Amino acid sequence: MALPIVTSIAPTTGPTGGGTIVTITGTGLTGAIAVGFGASDATNIAVASDTQVIAVAPPGSSVANVTVVTPAGRSAINAAAQFSYSAPTATSTGTPYFIDPALTSTIVGSLVNVLTASTSPDAIEAQNILMRRLALEGDVVGSRVPPPRNITEIGGYMNLLATLQEGAMREQTLAGILGVAGPVQAQGFLDQTTPLSMVALANDRPTGVAQPSIPTNVWVRSDFVSSVQAAVKTLHAQGATLPLTGPSVLTLPPGGPGAVMPANVLFYLGRTLTIAPQTALATPGTDPIALIRASGTSDPFAAAANAINPATNPVTPANYDALQCTATTATTVPLTAASFAPLAPVLGAAGFYQASPPPQPASNLDTSWASFSNVTGLVVGHTILGDELTLLHQPSDIAASVFASLLNTVWNGVTFA
Fold first, then answer.
1. Residue 72 near residue 54, CB atoms below 8 Å
2. Degrees, nearest 5: CA angle 324-329-332
3. What is the pLDDT of residues 119-138, one digit of tens each?
4. For the whole model, what pTM was predicted?
5. Residue 284 · residue 367 · CB < 8 Å
6. In whole angstroms, what separates CA 191 from the centre of its chain?
7. Are the C-beta atoms of residues 332 and 364 closer than 8 Å to each other?
8. CA distances from residue 351 to 41, 109, 337, 346, 354 in whole angstroms, order as listed
9. What are the C-alpha distances in Å from 112 to residues 22, 43, 68, 117, 367?
10. Does residue 55 carry a pLDDT above 80?
11. 10 Å Cβ neighbour count for 384?
12. Sign of the CA dihedral 375, 378, 380, 384?
């Protein structure tokens, strides 16, 4: 049997009091019976594989060569496998790095042994979490700050967490003070799921010149899916269609120097529906969508679906004035005995509304008329932008977005400010 070989360790430093969990990498490590830190042996070890051993560093000083002992003998000293002991580092306020005295190396070592010896799914996931912590921080038990000594220090920590917008950590801290279980949070590097998502729905693609440019699927926020499907079903019963458009991926605009706040924040919250603008304003009598008003009136033009298909609940024909646009002009054309299903009441029943009065395009380049927004559940003076964003987006994406500095803004009935 060949001697074990140690090629590297992580981390390479730790406190003089010991207790640091060190991952030793090499070859021939199966059957390891001891790990040496200079003249002292690790207080506990666990063999993860033939190439990896986890050990708890004993107390020590200066620099110690880390070696592994197997039935074949002890590995040779390697300059790349030296562990440096150091005194606890000080924080910016002069408080020493805190290690819970109740969490001894023996307890930690026993925990490591249990984890490496277990094969249940929960134990395997715990092993994964432990290895990620070791890889990212080189420590599992050390705290970044000492525990608060009095109510004043507790208040300081709570204020700091509020300033840093660490809502989840603040909730856990409050739960710990009260002695109750806090909300379960996703562990670092585990897949995180958001409460809501964007769902692909089959899109209406009525025949005509615009059909090739209409997407086959349209993405709708998961909590709005059933109401949008109900609206489409209502229009189909009237012999009309609802061709929509929108991106296949809802990506937040990046932050950084020069970043500009988008005008329509609701779009990035998955709270808008957009009528495919290419389906309107060209030939109102046959276009799938038209902007119409009652004939001879001065009412604003409003979006309606052309009911030209067989219907189980047909609409009553009427006379209308319709808007016909080019890239530079907008003209009014009469429509006689035409059948249209107004979109405002149908989409309003689904929670989506236009601005009032509806936008009036001056050319076919103006598509503002095609946007409908859903403000269901947004409470003026109470709903916070950060809470809305986390329903649909990952924290890392939000932090890198233009909204990162506006997470505490509040809904005012029009936007977040």
1. no
2. 35
3. 666 666 666 666 655 555 44
4. 0.57
5. no
6. 10
7. no
8. 68, 57, 30, 9, 10
9. 11, 12, 18, 9, 61
10. yes
11. 17
12. negative
Distance, CA of 224 to CA of 222 (rounded, Å): 5
Q: Which residues contact 305 (CB under 8 A, 6 or more apart)?
A: 235, 238, 240, 241, 242, 288, 289, 340, 341, 343
* 336: its two tokens: 């006689």
Of 188, 136, 148, 159, nearest to 10 by C-alpha is 136
In this predicted structure, the answer to whether residue 381 has a pLDDT above a threshold of 60 is yes
| Domain extent listing, the chain | 5-137, 148-190, 193-373
Q: What's CA 133's distance to the chain center, in Å?
A: 21
Q: What is the C-alpha end-to-end distance of the chain, expressed in Å? A: 71
Task: Mark residue 246 as left, alpha or beta (left: phi above 0; alpha: psi -120 to 50; beta: remaining).
Answer: left
CATH class of 5-137: mainly beta
What the block records as the tokens of 34 is: 């001891």
Residue whose token pair is 């990506």:
251
Tell me the sheet residues that pair with 27. Answer: 5
pLDDT of residue 335: 96
188 — pLDDT class (breaks 50, 70, 90): very low
Distance set, CA 147 to CA 11, 74, 90, 162 (Å):
25, 41, 15, 18
CA 133 – CA 141 distance, rounded (Å): 10
